[in-house]
Amino acid sequence: MKQLHTLFGDKMIKAKIPSQFERYKWFSCDEGFIGIEHTALSQKEQALLSAFLTPYDEKVSLLTPEQLYWSNLLFEAPEKVIHSHHTHHSFRFTQFLIKRLFEQKIEFENALHALYSTSVTVLWIDKQSGIVIETFDDPNDLTENLSDSIEVLCHDFETSIQFFEGQIHFFPSSPRLIFEREKKWFYQIKHTVEQNHVIHFTDVLPHLVLQESSGAIQNHMIHLLDLVKDDGDLLETIKVYLECNLNVSLAAKKLYMHRNSLQYRIEKFIDRTHLDIKHFTGAVSAYLAILALKNSQDGK
C-alpha cells in the first residue's frame, strides 16, 4: 500500500464503499477499497494492479442515488448532523454479517427487499457484511419480525447469517456516529450469541452493563454463584430459561428436556444460590451473574 501511495500520491484515495466512478478506477483490498484516478492509470499499470488486487466492477455495483446518499453520510461525513430525510422522521440500521465470502449480492439484496413492507436501502461494506437502512414516517407502524424469516434466508443461500437490529433513531442526529457505535456493539456480542440469527439491542444491553461495571462489582455477581459455578449444565439450563422469559414450556422445548426435569433444575438453582429466578429481581441478578461468570471463564 505504501508503494502505491508513493506511485500515485494524491491521485489515490481509500474508501469503505466506492463512488465517483467517472473519476476513479476502484480495486478491493483488505482495508476496503482504493480508487485511482483514471488519468493516472496506464493500461499496463491497470493490468498490473489487477494481478494482485480485485477490480471493482462498477457496471454491476453502481450505487443508486439513495445508496450514494447514505454511503456519503456513513463513510465520508463523520460528524454531520442530519435534520430530516425526505418526509421521514426516524431511521434504523440493521447490520448483517455473512459467514462466508459472498458473491450473490444482487439476489441477496432482492431477498432483503422482499422481507420489508416498506422501501429499504442496502449498502455493502465488503463481500461478507453490509447494512439495511429503514426510514420511517411513523415507527409505530412497524410490522416486520426478522426472526420469522432469517432461517429461510439462511437455508436459501446455504450459509449462516447474523443480523444486528439497531435502535430506532429520530432526526436530527448523526448517522455516522450511530452506525459506528452499533457496529461496535454488534462485533462485541456476535460470538457470545452465535446461535442467534437476529440480535437486538436488548440482547447487547446486559453485556454493556457488565463492561461498564467495576471488577469488584463483577466479582460480587460471580460470588452469587459460588455453589453452582462448576455445574456448567445447570448454568446453561438456567440461562436458556431466563432468555425464554421464564417460560418453562418454551425453555424445555429449546433444551429438549421434559418440563419436570427443567422444574427440578430451577428449584435446585434457587436452593443453592438463594436467587429466586421465578421473579424479576432474582432473574435479572442471576442472568448478569451468569454472564459475568462466563466472561471471567472466557478470559474477557
Automatic annotation (TrEMBL):
Residues 234-292 form the PucR C-terminal helix-turn-helix domain. InterPro entries: CdaR-like_regulators, Homeodomain-like_sf, PucR_C-HTH_dom, PucR_C-HTH_sf. Pfam families: HTH_30. This is PucR C-terminal helix-turn-helix domain-containing protein.
